[in-house]
């Protein structure tokens, strides 16, 4: 029983780390712009496709060791998807800021459809095999079996999360982002270029989403144009659970949602005597979303909004 429990814990941590990385993109954009970027799931989906194209190009050119090819493809994917995120914000969201929050949100839904169908048209709607970046070798740990892919995903996600936390809390540009999340008007009066801060979060968020997509595709061995829809909604649920707008909350929400989903899927069929099977896996995420919105709308680490805080942060 202990070995089975350990396997489920590692699985939950790996999946939760992926959810957390995607949730960071949602929460950063919302924290600064008060916008739900519904196209974020498509940035997650584009990551493994761009990685595959880059790897194919590098292998065709030849001359580099496989490890170097992989690192270059990962960096190219992060940068390219980040630049795409900046372009989407500049041309699809920024012109609509003056028209309230609904117009940019509808534009985000439109961009989600455009990006998904662009891959359908250029690559095809069918699922495509994605090779494991790290050899999926079993490792015995405390009597249980885990895989190198699971440990690699967890380690990479923790490094990325720690790096983002250090960047936001310990750099001058990070101060710009935090200031813009408080008040655009006051930040501008203090000489902070708010549009640059916005462009930066649209570079970092989609880039992290692309990294999560590569990890997800490597873990499950498959990628498809619709993969960003369900996973993106789950990551959005993780952001809500942790407190949307809070970077630590997005990380916590991702790991908690991963644990709820994995342990619910593993043990509910046992408890229910087989009446509820693993096909109800996605139900757990959206049940959590409903419960959080009902009983703690601000999330676990989110700020409870009162009339006083709304007045204090209002941009005049």
From TrEMBL:
| Key words of the record | Amino-acid transport, Cell inner membrane, Cell membrane, Membrane, Transmembrane, Transmembrane helix, Transport
Predominant location: membrane
Q: Which GO terms describe its biological process?
A: D-alanine transmembrane transport; L-alanine transport; L-isoleucine import across plasma membrane
Among the entry's GO cellular component annotations, what is one? plasma membrane
Where does the protein end up? Cell membrane
> Topology versus the membrane, per the UniProt entry?
Multi-pass membrane protein
| Pfam families, alphabetized | BPD_transp_2
What is a GO molecular function of this protein? L-leucine transmembrane transporter activity
List the InterPro entries hit by this protein, alphabetically.
ABC_transp_permease, BCAA_transport_permease
Its family? Answer: Belongs to the binding-protein-dependent transport system permease family. LivHM subfamily.
Protein name per UniProt: Branched-chain amino acid ABC transporter permease
* Top-level taxonomy: Bacteria, Pseudomonadati, Pseudomonadota, Alphaproteobacteria, Hyphomicrobiales
């Amino acid at each position: 029983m202990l070995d089975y429990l350990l396997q489920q814990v590692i699985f939950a941590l790996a999946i939760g780390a992926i959810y957390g990385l995607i949730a960071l993109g949602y929460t950063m954009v919302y924290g600064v712009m008060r916008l739900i970027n519904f196209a974020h799931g498509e940035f997650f989906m584009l990551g493994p496709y761009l990685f595959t194209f880059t790897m194919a190009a590098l292998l065709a050119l030849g001359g580099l060791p496989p490890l170097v090819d992989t690192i270059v493809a990962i960096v190219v994917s992060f940068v390219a998807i980040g630049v795409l995120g900046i372009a989407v914000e500049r041309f699809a969201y920024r012109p609509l800021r003056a028209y309230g929050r609904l117009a940019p949100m509808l534009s985000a839904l439109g961009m989600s459809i455009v990006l998904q169908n662009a891959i359908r048209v250029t690559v095809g709607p069918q699922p495509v095999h994605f090779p494991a970046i790290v050899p999926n070798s079993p490792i015995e740990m405390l009597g249980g079996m885990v895989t190198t892919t699971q440990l690699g995903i967890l380690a990479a996600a923790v490094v990325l999360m720690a790096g983002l936390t250090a960047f936001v809390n310990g750099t001058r540009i990070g101060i710009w982002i935090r200031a813009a999340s408080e008040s655009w008007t006051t930040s501008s009066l203090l000489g902070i270029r708010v549009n640059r801060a916005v462009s930066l979060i649209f570079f970092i968020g989609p880039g992290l989403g692309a990294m999560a997509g590569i990890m997800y595709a490597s873990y499950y061995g498959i990628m498809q144009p619709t993969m960003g829809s369900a996973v993106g909604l789950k990551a959005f649920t993780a952001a809500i659970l942790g407190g949307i707008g809070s970077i630590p909350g997005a990380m916590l929400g991702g790991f908690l949602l991963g644990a709820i989903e994995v342990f619910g899927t593993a043990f509910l069929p046992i408890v229910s005597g087989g009446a509820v099977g693993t096909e109800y896996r996605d139900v757990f995420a959206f049940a959590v979303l409903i419960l959080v919105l009902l009983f703690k709308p601000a999330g676990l680490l989110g700020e409870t909004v009162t009339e006083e805080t709304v007045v204090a942060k209002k941009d005049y």
